[in-house]
Amino acid sequence: MKIGILQTGHVADDLVAGNGDYPEIFANFLSGRGLTFETFAVVDGQFPDGPDDADGWLITGSRFGAYEDHPWIVPLEQLIREIYALGRPMIGVCFGHQIIAQALGGKVEKFAGGWSIGRNTYEINGEAMNLNAWHQDQVTVLPEGAKTVSGTDFCKHAAVLYGDRAFTIQPHPEINRTYIKDLLETRAPGVVPEALRQSALAQLDSTTDSARLAEMFALFFTERKIA
């Protein structure tokens, strides 16, 4: 099954050597599950010809906000609506989670409660999972027909299911220990509260359930369900 990766950002230059860019990170995350990948760097204006250029679609994270004015945002939203109308399975992570909601009529905002970083616990479809997070923006209003399948006190719509057409998630199951450590050491200082950064650093050696999410993503791509 061919998955089109809609790349909406780049890993910072000083972190690419140790982590790869987003397409490599997601390909590694989903490896061994019968999927092949083609990347379209929409952040650089590289778009597919249409929604049928892949059997399924995955939208990555980004340092940009879904509500910001960038030349690739509007055409990406239109492509999302076309993919959704065609019925190809679509998964969004962090920014991908947000832009899908926005494109389909929801709302994304910078959360007044601040940042979520590092290991957090989510109950997704009734199953408790520990995953890395890195975000301040959130989906605050769902599109019509969307269903929240995970929410916390901090993040009301942490994972959302759009029937059998889209599954989106706010945390980053694809981020491993090395990358989250790099982010905490190079990007968090002076940006997020120091107590929050130290708390996240203290949990670096705690396990996450990323492999379970990779299974869930693959199941949604191939069978249009998450359980």
UniProtKB/TrEMBL annotation:
It holds the Pfam family GATase. GO terms for cellular component: cytosol. Residues 76-178 form the Glutamine amidotransferase domain. Gene3D superfamilies: 3.40.50.880. It comes from the Bacteria. This is Glutamine amidotransferase domain-containing protein. It comes from Puniceibacterium antarcticum.
